[in-house]
Design brief:
Oligomer: single chain
Helix content: over 70%
Order of helices and strands: HHEHEHEHEHHHHHH
Strand order of the largest sheet: 2-3-1-4
Radius of gyration: 32 Å
Shape: rod-shaped
Number of strands: 4
Number of helices: 11
Distance between the termini: 32 Å
Structural class: alpha+beta
């Protein structure tokens, strides 16, 4: 009979130690907000990284040859000679002249009528594609061959134009990674504060459990279970809302019709990494709660 009473008293003490249900306190909501922002920042970093890789792959081994000659007849003849030279140069897979009419239409928004009246000499362009691998050496070889043909021929690698943009996207990706790390630290700090507050508010119950023979590890397990469940509920809620926002943003980017914006995507590996974030968040909250409570119990002895 006495053992049954002790077990009932221990169960009552545990229930007092772990009050409430899901979202009973502020911590699950705080973790939900943290997880929401963490997933968005991680998705931004992964999407920007995918855009940089896609842009680098598309532009590697591609260049434009400019024929900067003022005389129209000489420009046409020099462009034909350069085109023939490029097509027989080793390492060049394709050399296609850019339609002058299409080039004029692209320049019209900036030059106005000057792009079509013939008073302003517009260079002839040749789009060049190289074989994969060691594009720098092949571009240098093409440049030397064209320089021997005429000093009016210039080679412009496509990657050089977007190099500053690629650097900006890379920097933004690292910034997103830093935000994810800061969110993890903030989540850990919130759990530490919650575990300390729970420990301080249940000192009497903890003393009763100690008198009944409970160890510090057993008591800490109660705290980490309660905080772990709260973290699981908050992380699931924050992750669900973040995925909804990511999908909506993806639809807007697709509707924009821009190749550059369309490159900001998440593949299967990216989604797997995002799905791993709530698991890591719950694991972080549980271990942090356990460490905090054990340290507080050790100081109380």
């Amino acid at each position: 009979m006495a053992g049954r009473i002790d077990r009932k008293a221990a169960g009552a003490a545990r229930n007092r130690l772990l009050p409430g249900g899901r979202f009973a306190g502020p911590m699950p909501w705080i973790i939900a907000i943290m997880m929401f922002l963490t997933v968005l920042a991680a998705a931004a970093g992964l999407g920007l990284g995918a855009a940089v890789r896609s842009m680098s792959a598309d532009l590697a081994g591609r260049a434009s040859v400019q024929v900067v000659e003022a005389d129209p007849e000489t420009r046409v003849r020099l462009a034909a000679d350069a085109l023939a030279l490029l097509r027989r140069t080793d390492g060049v897979t394709a050399a296609v002249p850019v339609d002058p009419a299409a080039l004029t239409e692209q320049l019209r928004p900036w030059l106005g009528d000057a792009a079509t009246n013939g008073d302003l000499p517009i260079p002839a362009l040749i789009d060049v594609a190289l074989t994969p691998g060691d594009s720098d050496m092949k571009l240098a070889r093409v440049g030397r061959a064209l320089a021997r043909l005429s000093p009016k021929l210039r080679v412009e690698p496509h990657a050089a134009f977007l190099l500053p943009l690629a650097g900006l996207l890379t920097a933004l990706g690292w910034l997103a990674a830093a935000i994810v790390a800061l969110m993890a630290l903030a989540t850990g700090a919130v759990v530490v504060l919650a575990a300390r507050g729970a420990h301080d508010s249940h000192r009497g119950t903890i003393e009763v459990l100690h008198l009944m023979g409970s160890t510090d590890v057993q008591i800490a397990r109660l705290f980490q279970r309660r905080i772990g469940l709260d973290a699981l509920a908050g992380a699931a809620l924050g992750f669900a809302f973040a995925v909804l926002v990511i999908l909506l943003i993806g639809l807007r980017l697709s509707a924009a019709g821009s190749d550059m914006l369309g490159a900001v995507t998440l593949d299967g590996r990216g989604w797997a990494l995002l799905a791993l974030l709530p698991v890591l968040g719950v694991l972080l909250a549980t271990l942090t709660a356990r460490w905090t409570v054990l340290r507080a119990l050790g100081r109380a002895l």
